[in-house]
Amino acid sequence: MKRTMKRITAALLVLAAVFMCLSGCTPKEKEETSGKSGESISELTVSGLDIMHEDEFGGVYIKITIDDFNAYGFEYGDSLDVSFSNGHMLAGIPYYNGYYTNNGEPLLVAYPGYPYIKACFNNGGDLWNVAALSEEDTADISLAEKGVYLDIQDARNISYQDEREQFPSDEAFANFRNVQLGNLKEGMLYRSASPCDNQHNRAPYVDRLAAASGVNCIVNLADTEEKISNFIAKDDFDSPYFKSVYDRGDVILLKLNMNYGSDDFRTKLVNGLTAMAEHDGPYLVHCTEGKDRTGFVCILLEALCGCSYQEIADDYMITYDNYYKINPESEPGRYDVILESVFLPMLESIVGDGAVDLAAADLAVYADRYLVNAGMSPDAVEALRGKLTK
Prior knowledge:
Elements: H1 2-22, E1 26-29, E2 44-53, E3 60-62, H2 66-71, E4 79-84, E5 89-96, E6 106-109, E7 117-121, H3 127-130, E8 138-145, H4 150-156, H5 170-174, E9 177-178, E10 189-192, H6 203-212, E11 217-220, H7 225-233, H8 240-247, E12 251-253, H9 263-277, E13 283-286, H10 293-304, H11 309-324, H12 332-351, H13 363-373, H14 378-388
Parallel strand pairs: 5-6, 10-13, 11-12, 11-13
Antiparallel strand pairs: 1-2, 2-3, 2-8, 3-7, 4-5, 4-8, 6-7, 9-10
């Protein structure tokens, strides 16, 4: 039996090598050893991988699919060395299937739905520019240590289904809700997944819910005119209400990445919120999933409109209940990890003072200051608050 397994393993390695040669990549196998978590077992290097700029969120696509890369033996939670042919290197970075590092830290990510694995800084600078890369450069990836980041991978590893029947309601599936907190007017501010990008099968559901809610202005945090034209041209496009709002000029396009600490993010956000104040509601704010970029913008708007820390935190975490069934009762450990590692850094970046007691602070003061410091006029800030509040 052992001999048979060795033959099967050898055959698989040969097939993998043939595939990589055909695709322009070269796997270099060294003597294999068994290693526990934290032990160096750098037996595997995959060399000569083509790269391309991923400019929506900022980073470097390394042109090998997630499945093909994992087939070599790389596993989530491993520590990897990523070297580019121009000499830039990322040593000992974690390999995750999500953005689980702290803001500004590097990682190799195999995010579900991505065409390739990606090297990047999480909510930080654009690695493509930081490393001064070009499309003529290539990447080598080596295993540094096995499983050293596995505890974080296991705690943050969550995924959701894209089938409506897996969810209790259209609203939960579409991550669609009225943000009715603090001084916000009822039926004035909504948030959701995308009503136009149907990669997760949610757009038609969002579209119908937006129509039923009388949404008049849509703040699209993710897309460009070119992308929307491509969505509309697809056979599965079924969002007539979105198209009617778009055609009359009431969709505000921001194309935000998730580096909310950058000047570019703040500038685009201020331009978008200034335009939002010039439109009449009800408003719908969305990105692709309605989770990260939408989460940040809604935290900011809710704070501006006098919502409490607890109200803002509760609303943010509804998304994780909708998508992943994570709430204080079902998975308190994961709930707390997400609150502390994802939500809190967003709110703290708006407040800008680590010494502030967020639970007791007047968050409206800090949201107002954040927007003015980012370049929004005080009159525009008051106009926006006036549109949203009672």
